[in-house]
Structures are given as C-alpha cells and as structure tokens.
From TrEMBL:
InterPro entries: Bact_2-comp_sensor_kinase, Sig_transdc_His_kin_internal. Residues 144-178 form a coiled coil. The chain crosses the membrane at residues 12-33, 45-67, 74-95, 115-138. One of its GO terms (molecular function) is phosphorelay sensor kinase activity. GO terms for cellular component: membrane. Keywords: Coiled coil, Membrane, Transmembrane, Transmembrane helix. This is Signal transduction histidine kinase internal region domain-containing protein. The keyword Transcription regulation does not apply. Pfam families: His_kinase. It comes from Mucilaginibacter conchicola. It comes from the Bacteria. The keyword Transmembrane applies. Residues 172-249 form the Signal transduction histidine kinase internal region domain.
Amino acid sequence: MRDKMDLVVKSAVFRHVVFWALYITYELAFYHINSGTRAPVIHFVVFYLLNIGLFYFNAHVILDFAFFRTRLRFMNSAALIILELTIYLFVKYVLDNMISGIEGTPGVVKFTKQYSSYSIWRGLYFIGLSIAYWSMIYMEHFRERNHRITAEQLRTKAENLELENRIITVENAFLKNQISPHLLFNTLNFIYNDVYHKSERAGEGVMLLSELMRYSLVSGDSHDQVPLSDEIRQVENLIRLCRLRFGDQVFFNFRRKGKLTGIKVIPLIFVTLVENMIKHGDIGEESCPATVELIRMDDELIFRTSNPKGSSLPSVRTGLGLKNLEKRLHNAYENRYRFEIADLGDIFSAAIYLKI
C-alpha cells in the first residue's frame, strides 16, 4: 500500500515538473522571438520560482483556507487574493532591485505605474492559472466523493435488502417450525390416551413430559417474566417425572420457606438447575438425598440445589446449560442477582439469589 502511494506521489511530481518545463520553454521562446533580447539567467530563475510559488501558495493555502475553513468563501477568497497580490508586488519589487544590484546597476528599478501594472497583471496571470488548477483538482475530488457516497448508499441498500431477506427467511422458518410443536403435542396426547388405559403410571409420565415440553417451548425464548408458581409447578413436574422413571431409587427433598406469592421470574431458570442436578448428580443416595430449596427472605429470593456427585441419570433436557443460564440472568437482572456454583468434594451445589 505504501509503495503504491509513493508511486502516485512520484507520478504527480513528474507531471508537474514536465508541465513547468514545457511552459517555461514556451514562454522563453516566445519572449526571445518577439523581443530579440536576452536577459540574465538569474532573472528568469528568480522570477519563475516566485511565480510558481505564487501559483501553489494560492491553490493550496489561500483557496483551501477560504473554501474549506470559512463560511463566506468567495468574499474571503477575494480579500485574501488581494492581500496576496499586494505582498507579491512588494516581494517582486525588492527582488528586482536586488537583481539590479547584482548586475551592477543598483536602484534602477522605479515603482512606476507601468511597472506596477505589469507586475499586477503577471501576478493575476499566475493566480488565474492557480484557480484553474485548483478547480480541476477539487472537481475530481468532489466527483470521487460523490462516487463514494453513491457506492455507500448502494451498499447500504444492498445490506438492507439482505437483512430483509434474512428476516423473511427466519420468519418462514419460524412459521414452519410451528408445525413441529403442534404435531408433537398432538402425538403425545394420542400416546397418553392410548397408554393411560394400559398403564396409569406410563400415562402420567407422558402427561408430565408433554407439560414440561410445552412450558419449555412456549417460555424458553421469552424475555417476559412468569409467575413463580408456574416455575415451581414445572420443577415439581420434573421431579415427579424422575420419580416415575426410577421409583424408590430416587431421593429428593424439596423445601419451601417464606411468602412466595406475587413474585415473577424469568422462565426455566430454576428448572434448569434441577435438570442439571438430575442429569449429572447422584440422586439415588438415601443417606444423602438431593435437596432443592426455595426461600424468600425479605426482598431476596433464593433457589438452591445440592446433590452428591456420581452417576448421571439422564432426563428431560431444556437445551439450556449453566452458562446460558447465567447469561439469561445477567440480561434480565443485571446487578440484581448472584449465581453461585460450589464443588465441595463429593457434593455439588448451585444457587441463584434474586432481588425482588
């Protein structure tokens, strides 16, 4: 990238050098043919340097400042050009007298009307060239800027269209996916009705599974809060389903303390902890049963699970892990919660503390 920039700069410098070389050659040839006189080389070197300096100073200092850093662009540029021309006239007069001194005839240049008119015309000539040069540069600049703006607008429009297409795709996928839960629940209802006549225990299991899945699907992606009683009922359903599967081999204690009415929580946070305990913990130790505690203490709600570590008993999964649970808690409660996990040798515990 840097090499490319260097190449661009060198190319621009080369074009300018060639332009001034051709221009000076043309003027000197024209001057020699028409006047037939020869002036000292130093005279041409000094005054072409002065005029070229005026050319670039007017373009890159005066016009840039007037048009890009002031509000009254044309008025300010005219005033600055008049000031610039006055300084140019003074500098030219000083240089003329210095060159005359070098040539051995000091003080021969007089500030006459003819001298000032010629000098002002010469200065205006190079200022005019400078204005044309500046205009071409910034016409190209504005053209490129407009091209970039147009390209950016087209890119934004394309991104918006792509986003709209994605939204439509997601909506279509969502509508298609609505078929799956309805089909699932209808199938579960059919299985329940058929199985219940043969095994009341199996029928109850299907019913509990159906209710858990319905709650998970309906509430799992919701940011709205649900009554605490709904969440407690699903925790109880999960425990009942586990007892149906394993009977006397499962040992749970579910303790509740405090006033638990009138409280709302985001769904599936307590269900997730119980599911994690059933899946990864050993809930078959009669001497050390798994415990689930729900406690209301003033303005704080505490939900705690504790279980021996050991064999894993797979059960219903909501698809939410502990990391996702903590993210949901953070998004919903920010600084109004604590989520603690403790690994104490043979015992694993997890607890959620919510400010209510």
